[in-house]
What we know:
The complex is a heterodimer. By secondary structure, chain A is of the alpha/beta class. Chain A folds into two domains: about 65-140, Up-down Bundle (Four Helix Bundle (Hemerythrin (Met), subunit A)), CATH 1.20.120; about 155-345, Rossmann fold (3-Layer(aba) Sandwich), CATH 3.40.50. Chain A has helices spanning about 1-20, 35-45, 55-80, 90-100, 105-120, 125-140, 170-180, 200-210, 225-235, 255-270, 290-300, 320-325, 350-355, and strands at about 155-160, 185-190, 215, 240-245, 275-285, 305-310, 330-335, 345. In chain A, helix 11 (about 290-300) links the parallel strand 5 (about 275-285) and strand 6. By secondary structure, chain B is α/β, with parallel strands linked by helices. Chain B is about 55% helix and about 10% strand. Chain B has an eight-stranded mixed sheet with strand order 3-2-4-1-5-6-7-8, with helices on both faces. In chain B, helix 10 packs parallel to helix 11.
Amino acid sequence: xxxxxxxxxxxxxxxxxxxxxxxxxxxxxxxxxxxxxxxxxxxxxxxxxxxxxxxxxxxxxxxxxxxxxxxxxxxxxxxxxxxxxxxxxxxxxxxxxxxxxxxxxxxxxxxxxxxxxxxxxxxxxxxxxxxxxxxxxxxxxxxxxxxxxxxxxxxxxxxxxxxxxxxxxxxxxxxxxxxxxxxxxxxxxxxxxxxxxxxxxxxxxxxxxxxxxxxxxxxxxxxxxxxxxxxxxxxxxxxxxxxxxxxxxxxxxxxxxxxxxxxxxxxxxxxxxxxxxxxxxxxxxxxxxxxxxxxxxxxxxxxxxxxxxxxxxxxxxxxxxxxxxxxxxxxxxxxxxxxxxxxxxxxxxxxxxxxxxxx
Amino acid sequence: xxxxxxxxxxxxxxxxxxxxxxxxxxxxxxxxxxxxxxxxxxxxxxxxxxxxxxxxxxxxxxxxxxxxxxxxxxxxxxxxxxxxxxxxxxxxxxxxxxxxxxxxxxxxxxxxxxxxxxxxxxxxxxxxxxxxxxxxxxxxxxxxxxxxxxxxxxxxxxxxxxxxxxxxxxxxxxxxxxxxxxxxxxxxxxxxxxxxxxxxxxxxxxxxxxxxxxxxxxxxxxxxxxxxxxxxxxxxxxxxxxxxxxxxxxxxxxxxxxxxxxxxxxxxxxxxxxxxxxxxxxxxxxxxxxxxxxxxxxxxxxxxxxxxxxxxxxxxxxxxxxxxxxxxxxxxxxxxxxxxxxxxxxxxxxxxxxxxxxxxxxxxxxxxxxxxxxxxxxxxxxxxxxxxxxxxxxxxxxxxxxxxxxxxxxxxxxxxxxxxxxxxxxxxxxxxxxxxxxxxxxxxxx
Lengths: 359, 446
C-alpha cells in the first residue's frame, strides 16, 4: 500500500517537472498524462464536445486559461516555495485562499481538516506535495454520483432552466440553443419568464440570433400555460430538445416557488416520455447564498445539474464545492463569456486549477 | 430576512459575553473568533474581516473595558460602533446639482439589477417632486432597452433611447440634451452590465463619464455577491471613480456581507438598498440602523418613520381627540387597522422592534390573515353597531358572524378585545391629563 503510494507520489513529481518544462509550449497539459487521456475520452463523450467549434473559439479558451495558469504558478507555487516545511502556518494560508475563493467557512474547514490528516498519514514533508493532495481533495468534492454530461441522447428531451434573478438564465439558454443546434438538433424555446419586463423579447432576440423558434405568450400570463403550449408544439413539430426559460425568483418567495411546482407538474403530465433535465443556474460571483439557493430550489425541483455562469470574471465560484459535495448535484455547464460560443462543458480539473489561482 | 444568519450568530456570541461580570482577554479572543466565523460565513471579505476583528479586539482588551462594571455590554457597544462605521457611519443622500439636470450614471456587473434599480430610483425621485428622465445606454443585452421602456411606462417616467445601433456615449449625450430641452431635472443613465476586467467596456464607461460629467456615479452591487464584491467595487472605483453604491436584492435571505465589504474597500457610501421586486422597493440606507438590526437591538427609528409615513396626520389628531372624549368606536378601530396594514407585513414591523430577536421570530408564525378577518367582522356591522357596540346582542352577533364568514366566537372575541382596548385607552388618557402636554409621538395601539 505504502509502496504504491510512494510510487504515485514519484510519478506526480515527475509529471510536475514535465509540466513546468512544457508549460510554455503547451499550456493545456498541466495535468498528469494519464489523467489527460482520461479527460480526452471524457471530452469526446460529452454532448457539448468541442470538436465542432471554430478555431477562434479554441484560441479564446486557451488565452483565457493561460491567464489562469500563470496565476497558479504565481500564487500557490510561490506560496509553497516560500514555505520550507509543512506546518500550521501553511495550512492557514491555504485556508485563506479557499475562503477568498468563496469556498465558504464550513467547507474550507472540512477541506483543511482532511488535508491535515492526509499530510500526517502520508507523512508529507515536502510542500510541493501538499498542492497535489489539496487538488485531489477538491476534485473529490466536485465528484457526484451523477454524470457531468447533459443527458439528451434520445429525443425528445426537455430542459428546464431555473434560478434567482440576474444569474444569466436567458443568456445561458441562448447559448445552449446555439450549441445544440450546431450539432444538428431540432431545438425549440419556451419563454416562461412572463414576469420581468422584456424578458420575452430578450429570449426572442436570442431565438432569432441562433435560428430557433420561441413559443411565447404576453407578459404577465401563466408560465404553466406557456410550457403546456410549448410541449404540444414540441410534440407536433417533432422537436429534439425543448428548452424552457422561467422567471428569476428569489428562493425565499413562496408563491413563486409554488408556481414552479405547477410547471413541473405540467411537464410530468404532458411530456412524461421526454428525458428531463432541470438545470439550476448559479452566478459564480454569488457567495454562500448560492448554497441556500440550491437547497431551496432542490425542495421544489428535481435538479439534475448546475450551470455556473460568469466565470469569465475574477470570481472563483468556490461555493460550488459545498453544493456538489453536500447536495450531490453535478455541475454540467459553465458560462465564460458573452458570445454564443461561451458555454462550456464543466471540467473538474480545469476548475480546480482555476480555483487555486490568483486573479 | 436581511442578514439572517449573520444576525443570529452575532447575537448568540455576544449574548454569551453579556452576562459575564468579568471578562478576560481569552473570553474576548474566543468571542472574536466566533464573530470572525460569522462574518466570513456571511460573505464579508476576508481582509475586511481581519481588519475589523483586529480593531475590535484592540479596543475590547483595553483597560477601561475589562475593568468596567459591564464589560460584556461594552464589547457589544464597540462591535456596534465598529459595525456602523464599517458600513459608513451616517446616511448619505444623493447630491443634486445646483444647475439641473443632475446626472446619475448607473454601472455594475451583468445581472446586478441596474435597469430595475434605475426605474426604482427614478420613481423615488419623482415622488419627491423631481422630473427624472431615464436614458437607455445598454445596447448590448438583448431587449434591455425594451425593459427600461416597460419600467418607465409602469412608473410614468419618460425614457430616452436611440436603439441599439448607436454608441452609448452618443446616446448619453443626446439624452442630456433631451432632458435640458424638456425640463427634466434628473437624468438617470442605465449602462450595460460589464465585467470589471473587460477593458473595452470599461473604456466606454470612462468615455461616457468624460462626455457627460455625471454628478453621481452609482455602482450597483448584488447583495448576494461573495468575496469577489471587493474586486468588483475596487476596480470600478479605481477605473471609473464611483460616488456611491446601491445594494440590490437585499430581500433575499442574503447574508449581505457585500454591504460590509464594498464600503470598507472603496470608502464610498451605500446610498440605497433594493428590497423587493416591486418598483417601489428601494430604501435609503442607514448604516447605524442596519448595525443595530444586525445585533438585534431593533430599529425603532425606522419603525417610527414608517409609522409616520403610513399614518394620516390629520386622522391621528382626530383620533387623539376621540380618545380623550372617550368616544372611540369600532369605526376608528377599523381605520387604525387599515393604516397599520399600510406599514407592511407584521413580521417586517416586528423585525424592527428592539428585543425581538431572530430566533423568536422564526418560531412565530405571524398571520396577516387575522387582520383580514377582523376587518371583515367590523365591515359586516351596520354603522349604528360600529358606533355603539353595546347594542350588539346575540342575534346581531350571529348575523355578523355569518356576514363575515367567521364564527360567533370570533365576533365575541373581537368585541371583548375592543372593550379592553377602550378601557386601557381611558386609563392612558387619564394619565396623560395629569402629565404635562408634550409633543411626543403617539404609538398607535392595537
